Amino acid sequence: MTKKDDVIKLLKELSPEERREIFTYLRQDIPIHPLETNLNTTAEVILEAISRSNDITQRGIRGIITEVEFLTSVLQSLQGWNVVELVGDVPNDFKIDDGHGEVGIQVKMQRKEKGVAIVRRGKAVVEVQRTRTGVDASGEPTRPYKFGEFDILAVSLHPSTNDWSRFMYSVGIWLVPRPHNRKLIRVMQPVSLAPNDDWTDSLLTCIEWFRSKRKKTIEDF
After folding, report:
1. Under a CB-based contact definition with an 8 Å cutoff, are residues 110 and 121 in contact?
2. Is 17's pLDDT higher than 80?
3. pTM assigned to the model
């Protein structure tokens, strides 16, 4: 046995409190992430700061976690697809390419209210608009998404499932339009909690739907 094996064997024999003491000792010299060095602080302090932050800040953090989880648990497991580098302020969180054309994906998370996942008439609720407000050169608001700005909507169901890898997908042009401007995507969209004709838990299936160029509108609440 190596010294490392001996240490692991001894660690297994320690109590949880003793292992935590060893961990604290090792943490003095071993950073968990480069961000600790960049901010000149520790991961524990960063996490405590997030824990103390308000709901809007934590909502933003959850959104970032959703994107990273989508990249690691979904996109990086796809065979034959490359993640395209995004340049500038674009309406996609990711673009992927299999040699037959790029597919733009917008990633959102199921809405929560007072810490509880929102489900309306058996469907999850997702907010589909930009975080920041603004107007374009013609004075039109830039927060709404227009149909065609992204190809696929990926919705994390973590609030309902407590599973960061659980996503539902639908085609962007299938979403419900705003009642007074059908060129814009309505803010609150219904998401099926199980696969059906409008939503799938397979990104590849949704890409097939998108490439079929079929036109429809998903079932509303």
Report:
1. no
2. yes
3. 0.87
Query: Residue 41 sits in which domain range?
Result: 3-48
Other CB atoms within 10 A of residue 150 CB: 26
Please choose, from the candidates 41, 21, 22, the residue with its C-alpha nearest in 3D space to the C-alpha of residue 31. 41
Residue 57 lies in a domain: no
Q: Are residues 43 and 69 in the same domain?
A: no
Q: How far apart are CA 171 and CA 197, in angstroms?
A: 11
Number of domains observed in the structure of the chain: 2
| pLDDT single digits (tens) 53-103 | 998 898 899 999 999 999 999 999 999 999 999 988 889 999 999 999 999
Distance CA 126, CA 118 (A): 9
Strands 181-185 and 177-178: antiparallel
Could you tell me which residues are beta bridge partners of residue 203?
none
pLDDT at 138 over 90: no
